[in-house]
Amino acid sequence: MSQSIQYKLYENIFIETNIQSPDYDGVILIVYPEELNISLPRHIGSFVEGIRKLDKHIQKVATVWHCDYVSGGRIILAPTGNVTPYHDASIIKDAVKKGMLRALDAGVKKPLLVVQDIVNFPDGQLIGILGALEAFYIPLQMRERDDTKNFIRLGLYAEEKKTEDFERVIRNAIALERSRIMTRDIAGGDPERMSPANIVEYIKNSFAGITNITIKVIDDEKIIAQEYPLLAAVNRAANHVDRHKARMVELEYKPHDSSRVTETLMLVGKGVTYDTGGADIKISGKMAGMSRDKSGAAAVAGFLKACSILKPPHLKVVGVLCLCRNSVGSDSYVSDELLVSRSGKTVRVTNTDAEGRLAMADALFKLTEEAGNAMNPHLYTIATLTGHARACYGNYVAAMDNYSARATNHSARLQFSGGRMAEGIEVSTIRPEDLAVNVGKCKGDDLVQYDTEAKCRNHQLAAGFLIKVGGLEDKNIKYTHLDIAGAAGIPPEEPTAIPVLTLCHAHKVLL
């Protein structure tokens, strides 16, 4: 008999204990290398072994086969390929996503995914389900034009004796995917659909009726100029268009019982809705794709969404989205300007295309001041900040700790969590010269926005600038900078929603 437990995400999601249930029209099975000795459901073990002998190609690409022993009479075999000790959980996510996309291409509308428990990957079941859900993602602007779903129902197969633990995994997966949808929607929306004003509206709608999240929006031009002067300078050329005016969005998650809070997370996200480079304009086609420069703010919003659903009792979370647009025009801020930051330190502009650090600087300083009264605070900046991070680490996140966070090996913990959650993290070290290089060069200058003569360590010196302008240089407050420039997803790829999963795992947000 079939036993189903229903959840709702896009449509209906069920736990299914009968691999021959008539409620589905195709089964997706992940094919692991034989040497891993992964047990298969008893109905299909011999069938899959026969296919292995018939066609070794099933170890390379997802294939569709007729099979009388499964729902719908067809099975999609999705291979991981060779699995080595150097692989992380991404190998599972990628295999499941490819298998689910192949099933959709074959016309499957009611897929049943066999979610195996893999000793090598402790969170493999969770990551497999997330890979399947990722395959179903439809970009926001497509959904708004046509709300047709690409599947009717999703079954997740588990042996009957394991359904209780499996239910918890699914609850986590659904919460995380809702959070990643929010992140992808904001990051992937075009510069008009996700202008600062429209992001504010989207966030308000997304958190409507949720009582553990409070939202504060600052949209007054004079207040922003006074309290966030560096961001105001970046946005100056965009101020004549109302929907492009800067907005500061402060989100706060509080658990029901504040006495149980043991850690306060304070996150600042870069939300440049479009980056032309400003007066130092991007050329030779380098401007295309710059609507993704808001991926840091999108990730902060997504993490708060996860907290609102999963309700971690031990965390208080403050998230600040620095929403602006680096336009070009007669009122653009330009190199050689001397700006006065919220901290009172002067900053000499040297390259208007290094706007991200300015956009986040004053918000970071504000949170640094507030952290003094917070329970066990940890500050983050999350941004698509430097092409140098991408050049150094490819499509992985560069994680950098200040001395306080490094004392707890925090970035190493993020790297561990990233490996478990299929989000690659590389640890990069902030050294004394990365702070020193940001000291002003001209008389009276406290800081230089960017050392144009720097030949290397560009992503580390950006972190050094944030430490200095954020008032963190001499404070014993944990701070981690995440440069996601290489990992956030570049068109035509969909946004990755990195590092939402890593943060949820590292800070024990999951059920």
TrEMBL record:
Domain Cytosol aminopeptidase span(s) in chain numbering: 351-358
One GO term (biological process): proteolysis
Pfam families per record: Peptidase_M17 (PF00883)
Protein name as catalogued: Aminopeptidase W07G4.4
InterPro entries for the chain: Leucine_aapep/pepB, Peptidase_M17_C
Family: Belongs to the peptidase M17 family.
Keywords from the UniProt entry: Aminopeptidase, Hydrolase, Protease
Natural source organism: Papilio xuthus (Asian swallowtail butterfly)
Stored PANTHER family: DIPEPTIDASE B, ISOFORM A, LEUCINE AMINOPEPTIDASE-RELATED
